[in-house]
């Protein structure tokens, strides 16, 4: 907010007097405020304190309800005074009045106090509030006092509305007033603003309200509002109505044509609001969210919920398939165990059978043995030689019988052992089955837990990325650094008085430039790289990042980006850092691939192949920009990076010798594609780190070029101008950013849009003879710096109009 001269600040008044005057001023403002409230709220009798409390409550309620009319924030010093009773206020006011009268007698204060009182005593306050919309989005609420338009300034209280602001915005609730020409608003017969000649404005018919004016506010996220003449406020236009504006209908249609599966216009409209009304971005976002399910949805009548459901079903199907496979394995194991069990049962039956047979045989043999024994006893009594022979035979039979008995006993023992083994095996199988059941249950439980942990992990890693990104956005998505090269021919026209400011003295004409950081000639390569470190981490988190070096030939761009063998520049250091972070994150599998391109005379050349194809074309789908056929080499270590880069450099030198050109006449781009798959959550992230050493920025007139050199200079001029136009469009928050005006900006589109982060080095030479180029380079950097500072810091809160 602009600062204005304080009329009360007379230097001749001593501090105490000045404090008293301020005190009187605030009391007066409060009385004035009470008058306004009395007009707005219900009138309470002053004589009854209880009534007055009630009235005050009513007044406060009225203020809360009628937010658009209030100009006094509750937390301001005046707002706090509202908490005291009117009676106390009046007593205090009387005391102060007496003190002021006392001070008025003092000759040096008389003049100032009288001046103040002449303004404050006459409380002729118009209760018509007007809203003035500054083009930076700030809304001022004004009212008229003694014919002067006043407004409430946070620091100074109620002061006249500054003249200089009239040309920087418009009054938007002009009912009952004659519009000023400077307002730039056409009005209909009711005095309501109708059309501004601007693509952000439109009009819309609302039943009961008639035609209302709409305006898309340039906030961080653009929002379409309509002008409600009843409340004198800009209210958010409901989605259903907003989609009928010409401006939005065409964009909704564009998204609809690209993604026919989306049929809910309201959801498309809501997405457009969030994407700054950029249909390309909406298409990319939908692709990123729904991917396959968006392509697979052939029915053409799905909405978000169905698509989310479709995707969830696909994922759940996969989980179920996995579990089914595990279950089948377990069932196979179970069948095997059952077969084993069956085999053992059969064995047991066989053995039982054999045992029974043997037992039978033993019983028979025992019976036979008994018979033989009885016969022997009988024959012993009649002792003949023939009988003794028979006796011998019988003894032999007895021996064999004893042997059989022994065998059968052993068989019995075996049988018992077998039974015990079978019993053990059966109980073991039972235990195994129980264990199997427990394992399956545990598996189900851990699967569930795993799912929960996975979801938690996914949410937390997303939150971490978002917080880091928010931090980066607060610092600025585009950071601009100025680097002055080391040079013996250093003049005294450059002054570095802080590490953010640089002053150029051009024959007494001094100009100051401010950047995120200024690197002095003595700064090392490490110091310079430090500035780019935070955005490298963003690249690993899935944000596109680019680092550019801009400046005239010889100002140190290549030294900054490529560096030397001993003192490597930003290129090597940033890729090295990126690989380090990738390795640190064990849970995510990263693939990093490098490409090297040269843009010469608006043609693309692949530097990683010999006699590189100069017919490479750029393709874009939504915001995805690709170069089909471009070589990509996977890099894992610093050695890989160095090898790949020196190969590209070699091809570049060969090509430039062949074509009789200088490498400084072309833009060099090193692109590192980072692809990460989170092994826990399965989230896939892709991002690119683009490192760009731009061609020398000197003007054509300075190079005095002709023929081929003139063509080169014109091509460089075209691409650097296009780069400037892109930055200007970003600075103005334009709905259209002309990325496709040159190959350079087209390739840089993903790194200069959305949540991408960029670092721009403006390289300058300290040599006095280059002062012209130095100033134009600093101006270029300074214009980008304004985007860097402006965009994330823009926080235009509007208490009258809600979020
Ligand atoms: N900060 C520095 N410290 C030491 N030497 C430097 C520094 N900056 C540049 N130089 C030296 O100055 C010379 C020119 O620098 P460089 O080639 O990087 O300029 P350039 O802007 O890339 O020029 P071109 O557009 O022609 O490629 C080189 O020899 C380089 O080593």
Automatic annotation (TrEMBL):
**Which SUPFAM superfamilies does the record cross-reference, listed alphabetically?**
P-loop containing nucleoside triphosphate hydrolases (SSF52540)
- State where the protein is found: Cytoplasm, Cytoskeleton
Enumerate the residues binding ATP. 551-558
Q: Which Gene3D superfamilies match?
A: Kinesin motor domain
Q: Which UniProt keywords apply?
A: ATP-binding, Coiled coil, Cytoplasm, Cytoskeleton, Membrane, Motor protein, Nucleotide-binding, Transmembrane, Transmembrane helix
Q: Which domain of life is it from?
A: Eukaryota
Cytoplasm: is it a keyword of this entry?
yes
Q: Where is the composition biased (Basic and acidic residues)?
A: 48-62
Which residue intervals make up region (Disordered)? 43-84
Annotated Kinesin motor domain ranges read 477-787
Residues spanning the membrane: 16-37
Q: Which GO terms describe its biological process?
A: microtubule-based movement; microtubule-based process
Compositional bias of kind Polar residues: 63-84
InterPro entries listed in its UniProt record? Kinesin-like_fam, Kinesin_motor_dom, Kinesin_motor_dom_sf, P-loop_NTPase
Q: Name one GO cellular component term.
A: microtubule cytoskeleton
Q: Which Pfam families match?
A: Kinesin
Q: Which residues form a coiled coil?
A: 310-375, 433-477
The similarity annotation says: Belongs to the TRAFAC class myosin-kinesin ATPase superfamily. Kinesin family.
- PANTHER family (UniProt xref): KINESIN-LIKE PROTEIN, KINESIN-LIKE PROTEIN KLP-3
Please state what the protein is called. Kinesin-like protein KIFC3 isoform X1
